[in-house]
Amino acid sequence: MILVTGGAGYIGTHTCVELLNAGYAVTVFDNFCNSNPESLKRVERITGKKLQWIRGDCRNRDELIAALKQSGASAVIHFAGLKAVGESVEHPLWYYDNNVIGTLRLLEAMQECGVRILVFSSSATVYGDPHRLPLAEDHPLSPTSPYGRSKLMIEEILRDVQHSDQSFQMGILRYFNPVGAHPSGLIGEDPQGIPNNLMPFVAQVAVGRREALNVWGNDYPTPDGTGVRDYIHVVDLALGHLKALEALQAAQRAQTSPFSGCLTVNLGTGRGYSVLDVVNAYEQACGRPIPYQVAPRRPGDIACFYADPQQAKTLIGWQANLDLNAMCASSWHWQSTNPNGYHT
Ligand code: UD1
Predict the structure, then answer these.
(1) Is 177 near ligand 1, meaning CB less than 6 Å away?
(2) Where in the chain is the domain with CATH 3.90.25.10?
(3) Could you give the C-alpha distances from 179 to 6, 57, 105, 108, 323, in angstroms and in order?
(4) Ligand 1 neighbourhood includes 229 CB (under 6 angstroms)
(5) I need a surface site. Which of 130, 163, 262, 307 has the fewest CB within 10 A?
């Protein structure tokens, strides 16, 4: 049994699908502050399997202990957290409370219940402005927002806890830019309010919910002047969690610590695409023009950011397989069949 915190969210639901398909039993622990239980019904529809879910908050140790005991979980995948960079600048305490304190309470509950495997959702944002590209795991860590710093603080906590108790098997997964949706079109990203991120904004323009995309700057030192990112299909990302989990389980069975501390891997494709590359690929996928205008640079943005994905291949046998066309086609399938997300 795997306990999945934040399992009703965007990446969580896609990971639950892959866990259930692989034969794991799943209990979701979620406070639904930015998600909807409907997404879990969709997970059951896709897989034809049932999952358990518990409404609970990671800052509440007793609720976590009850969930771990009730489910009989042998491992935790920890997605629960806040993730909006701009909001984290406005309300840093929300981020340190939800993300950092929530993880502390989770670790205490795991210690109490003897659960020793944790896969954690980190972010490539922990690297900050790149000194060199592609970004490898040994790049210095210097996040530039409270959101990013909350992720880095959690990473440091995990490293300290694992160091103090070698029976803990921990995976730190640094995501690049997750996009796309399950090919069924039943689950996908369902942002509240105006999307901050590129692909959900483009999707809403395509479906007619928004008039035009603002391209934040076309004077970056990139081939077409717009920002370059490493977009990764959310299904590939979900499969990365499965591979990490399996590697940690194997290490636990062998009673070894093969990763010299926490298993730490980038989950990215290693390929960068510009904003205009994404717009063009999306136009192909949806068969409509995506109107856009060039606007000033967004503060805090950088020109170019993409992964060195080699370490994930070496350590957990994972690599991304789905390309930008598959990302856009699946995003469009989800967006066009659920124009208002789970509220349709
Ligand atoms: C952002 C976060 C990052 C987080 C990631 C999640 C910042 C600085 N970084 O990354 O911490 O982990 O989301 O996916 O916010 N763009 C437009 N118009 C738009 C939206 C975006 O031109 O309306 C451009 C951006 O300038 C950028 C690219 O699209 O070049 C990607 O932006 P976005 O999807 O927001 O991701 P990141 O900024 O890379």
Answers:
(1) yes
(2) 198-229+270-343
(3) 17, 26, 30, 32, 11
(4) yes
(5) 163
What is the domain class of 198-229+270-343 according to CATH? alpha beta
- Determine which residue's CA is closest to atom 20 belonging to ligand 1: 198
State whether the beta carbon of 343 lies less than 6 angstroms from ligand 1: no
Q: How far apart are CA 191 and CA 69, in angstroms?
A: 32
225-272 pLDDT, tens digit per residue, is 999 999 999 999 999 999 999 999 999 999 988 898 999 999 999 999
Q: Which CATH number fits domain 2-179+231-267: 3.40.1710.10, 3.40.190.10, 3.30.70.2740, 3.40.50.720?
A: 3.40.50.720
Would you state the pLDDT for residue 140?
Answer: 98
Rounded to two decimals, what is the model's pTM?
A: 0.97
Catalytic residues: 147
User: What are the CA-CA distances from residue 244 to residues 78, 143, 202, 295 (Å)?
Assistant: 13, 24, 31, 40
**Cβ of 197 less than 6 Å from ligand 1:** yes
Q: How far is the CA of 226 from the centre of ligand 1 (A)?
A: 12
- Expressed in angstroms and rounded, the spacing between residue 51 Cα and the centre of ligand 1 is 33
CB of 328 closer than 6 angstroms to any ligand 1 atom: no
Nearest-CA residue for ligand 1 atom 4 is 125
Mean pLDDT for the stretch of residues 184-189: 98
Cβ partners under 8 Å of residue 7, min gap 6: 13, 15, 16, 26, 28, 29, 30, 40, 51, 53, 77, 79
